[in-house]
Amino acid sequence: MSAAPSHVAYESDIAPIAALISDRTRAAMLTALLDGRALAAGELARLAGVSPATASSHLARLLDGRLITMEAQGRHRYYRLAGSEVARVLETIALISPPIQVRSLRQSRQAAMLRTARTCYDHLAGRAGVALLDALLDKGVLIPAGETYEVPADGEELLAGFGVDVPAVRRSRRKFAGPCLDWTERRPHLNGALGAALTARLIDLGWLVRGRERRALVITDTGRAGLADVFGCLLD
Amino acid sequence: MSAAPSHVAYESDIAPIAALISDRTRAAMLTALLDGRALAAGELARLAGVSPATASSHLARLLDGRLITMEAQGRHRYYRLAGSEVARVLETIALISPPIQVRSLRQSRQAAMLRTARTCYDHLAGRAGVALLDALLDKGVLIPAGETYEVPADGEELLAGFGVDVPAVRRSRRKFAGPCLDWTERRPHLNGALGAALTARLIDLGWLVRGRERRALVITDTGRAGLADVFGCLLD
DNA sequence: GTCATGCTTCGATGCTCAACGAAGGATCGT
DNA sequence: ACGATCCTTCGTTGAGCATCGAAGCATGAC
Fold this sequence. Notes:
The structure is a homodimer.
Chain A: H1 14-21, H2 24-32, E1 39-40, H3 41-48, H4 52-64, E2 68-73, E3 76-81, H5 84-95, H6 105-116, E4 118-120, E5 123-125, H7 126-138, E6 143-145, E7 148-150, H8 153-162, H9 166-171, E8 179-181, E9 188-190, H10 192-204, E10 208-210, E11 217-219, H11 221-231
Helix pairs in contact in A: 2-3, 3-4
Chain A binds a DNA duplex through helix 3 and helix 4.
């Protein structure tokens, strides 16, 4: 095929984006960036199991396709996902992808940890993420408004007491708050600037701690108690 | 790379699914199936601009990857998307894909039509879809409940008067109703069994008519008046 | 039965692209 | 200035796969 058939010519060209994700190495890199961190090229090469030369060419293609962004710092070059829409695409595809069969006990434990709590881009996901969103909606801290959520005055007060400055979060140019479909729970967790701020505060407080695989999160005992106390969020 | 690096081994294997979408021809076929219809192999070959032999091999791969399903009828073989999750993936990727530049006036008119009203899998999308969901929420016919919507008693009554049997829709095994992010409007429209039933009824009533490209929908004058009258849904 | 239609399988061709080693910047430490 | 580190560019190799025509296999029409 040299040209697109005319019947689809008025649509978005999804094949090139899918092609960027369709390579195992690039998919591994994107997945490694799914927690929203910036990683250096060498680190990504090591994680994906390829030579620096190979990694560099893949990163150049991902950059060209605007799936990632780059920031040079000294002789390091840090790459991160271009935005949460990219993370959304990856998680949406994961939703219909066959899960990789678990081979070792260690892997099985890690998978269980990820299902319990993890970061999705930069906000809380997994059972804990879903439970927290449920609790916030239940308590009226969040009010659904179409695709987004709003925070009423009393909700803003409660969040202020918790240590999240809602007016400051609102000033961010990023989407304020919205639902993000969770690929393990198949139900939404909290997205956007507010989701990120809440998650950051939870980690700051020591209610959540990063696991060895940095995407994984562990809920501490104080965290469990605090979440129940402040948000009425009960975790099994 | 012969094996997946251990760091991502506990996750879903997204690369193979992305690979299925990454080919222009297969992407064209999947896009053609986005309206939820079943199309014959020959039709898909023609739409994608390839020989029957080529189309057949692509369809076999899509079938193997469970992105589509097949039903044989006589000497025809009809293919359709495996489900709305697949449609969701395609639309999500479209969200971050560069739109194809418009070349002809005809294409520009068709693109405008698609933005105004179209089917997404089997439910109404585009400006009309977003406006209808807004109106339904505004009127209280739909109540947000996490990732899904519920219909209260008076909403059920209004829909019954319109010709949609909500209890029957509820009995479907499919998800009842939910938001589906619109890739042109970047705001949600109504999804699920209820979205499909509503859309079918709108077409039945002649309020919406299929365009030449079957995914496109045209709002008739009676439709415009009816939507405003019944749902308070105003279209520009 | 016989022919036409719709689709798939087979085999051959050619192109794309992932991978690596080697070499070439760029930056840091000393 | 000098080597060390980090990363990229270049050139080559090899594997995968999209494509088609021809042949095979069903089904439907007559």
